[in-house]
UniProtKB/TrEMBL annotation:
<dbReference type="InterPro" id="IPR003593">
    <property type="entry name" value="AAA+_ATPase"/>
</dbReference>
<dbReference type="GO" id="GO:0005524">
    <property type="term" value="F:ATP binding"/>
</dbReference>
<feature type="domain" description="ABC transporter">
    <location>
        <begin position="253"/>
        <end position="498"/>
    </location>
</feature>
<dbReference type="InterPro" id="IPR027417">
    <property type="entry name" value="P-loop_NTPase"/>
</dbReference>
<protein>
    <submittedName>
        <fullName>ABC transporter ATP-binding protein</fullName>
    </submittedName>
</protein>
<dbReference type="Pfam" id="PF00005">
    <property type="entry name" value="ABC_tran"/>
</dbReference>
<keyword id="KW-0067">ATP-binding</keyword>
<feature type="domain" description="ABC transporter">
    <location>
        <begin position="6"/>
        <end position="237"/>
    </location>
</feature>
<dbReference type="InterPro" id="IPR050107">
    <property type="entry name" value="ABC_carbohydrate_import_ATPase"/>
</dbReference>
<dbReference type="InterPro" id="IPR017871">
    <property type="entry name" value="ABC_transporter-like_CS"/>
</dbReference>
<keyword id="KW-0547">Nucleotide-binding</keyword>
<dbReference type="InterPro" id="IPR003439">
    <property type="entry name" value="ABC_transporter-like_ATP-bd"/>
</dbReference>
Length: 505
């Protein structure tokens, strides 16, 4: 048997109120794809941050290529052959691909040489990318390729990937997996974090499962069902969402030939969008990211204005109203970007609860903030949505990604909206919590709320939507009943955006 590439023994890291990693030990072999599984807050990101030199363990040892390994910063980890592709890309939109790659390198070669090397790596590993293109014009999949190529130019022995497929089309996922397989055939090891269990079954050789910071077991994903893996992570069985029959009420929200120019140079303008959603109904909107989803959410939240008549709430024109008045009426929204847009990173959960809940939860009285009521509201969200955190005083940025997502969705759901618009409601959320969020949206609709769910997850949309439409380059397809729609029909509705194929529903 070959000696392991990386072995971890007894790694422990505590934060105030939580032990993020508790005596974690396992090994990664050269040439394998090793999955790191665990529910939200289980400690996956903390563990890989220790390997990448972003977080220092309180105790425990790491051995890489047979030598003691204790990186104090990412450059030390990179020098030892460890590379990492993050969930959120750190790229500059206005610069081209080669310039962005150079910015992430310790000693970048001259631009001409770098462009040649980028072309070589991109051809060798099947990652099509033109070094001269401006990054702002690239799709999410192409941006990820910039990050991957940046890593590959450093000749890594271990590549860490944190939820790499959440922004990719099914076709881009296939391309990525091909690249990863080529890398492993050359002996590179891949440490792979994902909540998408079917993908893990396709790609990964071994999996280590974390629960509440502890290593609770390993499995061979190919030989384990997705349901069994989910239960290993949670430690118990969980319920799949149930959809009750509902009577639909009045039209709650209507868009009439809505046209809006994106405020961003790299955004997508909305072109003639017409739709309506009734009380008690869930309208699912699919499409590849970057086809107008963010702009549609902004035009509904009031962050972007339109013609007054183009947006109608219970028959009233509201296109010129800002976010405050819309919230007061009961039109609530939860954007996709949880850190920075949906939540203020350095503010506590109580302060974040206040940010969107002040009006409808009466957290303000005669100009004064009612702090104890705001804290009680934050506690109710934490309780109802099973947000794993020591308490409401914790800053939003200290929550694991999935737990913050649960908080952001819970905050809007608990305000009993008349209309709720969500974008990617279960992004980065584990299987059990995703089921709970979908159930909460179904329950809201059962109580008469009109829901618009924008998502790239077609399985999710088919599970909860009554009717389905797709965004493509700022236009909306025909809207059709979701039940009985075939994969081919959905593919046609998505209109081949960025040449994508719909591989699964
Ligand atoms: N900087 C920090 N300060 C305080 N607590 C933190 C910090 N970073 C992580 N934690 C806590 O450590 C625990 C583990 O978080 P971590 O981000 O590693 O989980 P995860 O498994 O990656 O979750 P997810 O799947 O939601 O991304 C969580 O309880 C989280 O709140």
């Amino acid at each position: 048997m070959t000696s392991p590439l990386l072995s971890l023994s007894g790694l422990t890291k505590a934060y105030p109120g939580v032990v993020a990693n508790d005596n974690v030990s396992f090994e990664v072999q050269p040439g394998e794809v090793h999955a790191l599984l665990g529910e939200n807050g289980a400690g996956k990101s903390t563990l890989v941050k220790m390997i990448y030199g972003l977080v220092r363990p309180d105790s425990g040892q790491m051995v890489l290529h047979g030598e003691a390994f204790a990186p104090t910063e990412p450059s030390a980890a990179r020098a030892a052959g460890v590379a990492m592709v993050f969930q959120h890309f750190s790229l500059f939109d206005a610069l081209n691909v080669a310039e962005n790659v150079a910015l992430g390198m310790e000693n970048p070669p001259p631009m001409g040489d770098l462009a040649t090397r980028i072309r070589e790596v991109s051809t060798t590993y099947g990652l099509p990318l033109d070094p001269a293109r401006t990054v702002g014009e690239l799709s999410a999949g192409e941006r990820q390729r910039v990050e991957i190529i940046r890593c590959l130019l450093q000749d890594p022995r271990l590549l860490i990937m944190d939820e790499p497929t959440s922004v990719l089309t099914p076709q881009e996922v296939d391309i990525l997996f091909e690249t990863l397989r080529k890398l492993t055939s050359e002996g590179v090891a891949i440490l792979y974090i994902s909540h998408k269990l079917e993908e893990i079954r396709t790609l990964c050789d071994h999996a280590t499962i974390l629960r509440l910071g502890k290593n609770v077991g390993t499995c061979i994903p190919r030989d384990t069902s997705a349901r069994d893996m989910a239960e290993l992570m949670v430690g118990s069985a969980f319920a799949a969402p149930e959809r009750a029959g509902r009577d639909l009420g009045e039209v709650a929200l209507e868009l009439k030939d809505l046209t809006a120019v994106s405020s961003s140079a790299f955004g997508t303008s909305l072109k003639g969008i017409t739709l309506s959603v009734r009380q008690g109904e869930i309208l699912g909107l699919g499409g590849v990211a970057g086809n107008g989803q963010d702009e549609l959410l902004a035009v509904l939240s009031g962050e972007m204005r339109s013609n007054a008549d183009a947006v109608q709430f219970m028959g009233q024109p509201i296109g010129r109203l800002g976010p405050g008045p819309r919230r007061k009426m009961g039109l609530l929204t939860a954007p996709e970007e949880r850190l920075g847009h949906a939540a203020a990173p350095d503010m506590s959960l109580t302060e974040n609860a206040l940010l969107t809940g002040a009006e409808r939860e009466q957290l303000m009285q005669r100009g004064f903030l009612r702090w104890s009521a705001a804290e009680a509201f934050a506690r109710r969200i934490i309780e109802a949505f099973d947000v794993r955190t020591p308490g409401p005083d914790v800053a939003a940025r200290a929550l694991s990604g999935g737990n913050l997502q649960k908080f952001v969705i819970g905050r809007e759901v608990m305000q009993r909206p008349e209309v709720l618009v969500v974008n990617q409601p279960t992004w980065g959320v584990d299987a059990a919590a995703a089921a709970a969020i979908r159930q909460a949206l179904l329950d809201l609709a059962a109580n008469g709320t009109a829901v618009i769910c924008i998502s790239q997850d077609l399985d999710e949309l088919m599970e909860i939507s009554d009717r389905f439409g797709a965004l493509n380059e700022g236009r909306l397809s025909e809207i059709r009943p979701a039940q009985g729609l075939s994969v081919d029909e959905i593919g046609l509705m998505m209109g081949g955006a960025h040449g994508m194929e719909v591989a699964h529903v």
